[in-house]
Amino acid sequence: MKFEWLKDKKLVGLGPMDGVTDSPMRQLARHHGADFTSTEMISADGLVRKSKTIFKRLNFKKRERPIVAQIFGKDPQIMGEAAKMLEHDFKFDAIDVNAACPAKTVITSGHGGALLKNPGLLCSILDVVRHNTTLPVSLKTRCGYKDSSEIIKLAPKLEKTGINAIIVHGRTVLQKFQNSADKTIFNRLKSEISVPLIATGDIMNQNDIADLFAHHKVDGVLVARGALGNPWIFEGLDIIKNNPKLFLEKNQSKNLIQKIGVQEFKETVIKHLDLSIDYYGNEELACTLFRKHLLWYLGRIPGSKLLKVKASIVKSRKQVEKILQFVNC
Question: How far apart (Å, rounded) are the C-alpha atoms in residues 104 and 174?
Fold first, then answer.
């Protein structure tokens, strides 16, 4: 089935995180119930230049579908050419344009969140991308560059470019990840647009997902940092989407180990690692890249400080297994 941003069907997906949401993480997210996954942030310039590194990052398995490719760039024609390649050469299910990233190197080069300072250019990019692909096109953005109300005025102009959905992080670009995301922006924004509105930012657990569906006018949720070391955040989404208020009433807060059990925790960590070894084809390389994931997993359990020190230098599957032997309630 062709992927669509449906207003009458709530969606919860894995959001793009640079250097994080590689194929192994995406496979695990889908296995645990994510409605869709997203690639890492991909440079349109690098893609059009046919960078081997970019091509490698765009490899995905069938079980990761529906999969959204997120691209960034500031040249409309290059972005349009990248969109063609993503559809015809790589067979993605949807395309997301990044106008949200607040990283200093991205902003100073005029990409990501910097596009909010030039709405004309951003609209031009979206228009060209829209006309160069038949895939659904979304925009991931912040609620503003320096003022959280900027998106209210800008959104109708963005919608006129023909995009199929808008994904909004409730912080400004200048805020980066400081302070709490402003979730009140969604109710105000929803009345200004007709395309699906997807919320992101500060979604750290299932209660946060349920709260958005229960009290805010959103059509979907994009989970990013809340999925780090926690693919279980995507489990049991049906009740969260269909009856979020009931979920909030019944859900009792417990730590992760109490919810899922020690054995499932260990098995999931190893499964994630094995997916990484299979994908990267080299155990030491995979384990080195997996270290950050292992630290996030261990960070979800109490009393893991010493284990995290050992986790930061693992080079083999056996070393990971040895660390997990010390995980208990």
Answer: 10
Per residue in 262-317, pLDDT (tens digit) is 999 999 999 999 999 999 999 999 999 999 999 999 999 888 899 999 999 999 99
CATH number at residue 207: 3.20.20.70
Same domain, 200 and 310: no
Q: How many angstroms separate the CA atoms of 223 and 116, rounded?
A: 22
Question: For residue 257, which of 306, 324, 209, 207 has the smallest C-alpha distance?
Answer: 324
Q: Give the chain's domain count.
A: 2
Same domain, 68 and 107: yes
Q: Which residues contact 159 (CB under 8 A, 6 or more apart)?
A: 166, 193, 194, 195
Which residue has tokens 């109300």? 149
Domain identity same for 304 and 158: no
SS3 276: helix
Residue entry with tokens 């096109």? 137
Q: Which residues pair with 138 in a beta bridge?
A: 96, 165
Parallel, antiparallel, or unpaired for β 94-99 and 137-144?
parallel
What is d(CA 211, CA 200) in angstroms, rounded to the nearest whole number? Answer: 12
What would you report as the CA-atom Rg of the chain, rounded to the nearest whole angstrom? 20
Report the pLDDT value the prediction gives residue 148, as an integer from 0 to 100.
87
Q: Which residues of the chain have pLDDT under 50?
A: none
Q: Calculate the CA dihedral of residues 88, 94, 99, 104 and round it to 10 degrees.
A: -70
Q: Please report, in angstroms and rounded to a whole number, the separation of the first and last CA atoms in the chain.
A: 42
Which domain does 95 fall in, by range? 11-250
Domain final residue, candidates 189, 221, 250: 250
Chosen domain end from 250, 273, 301? 250
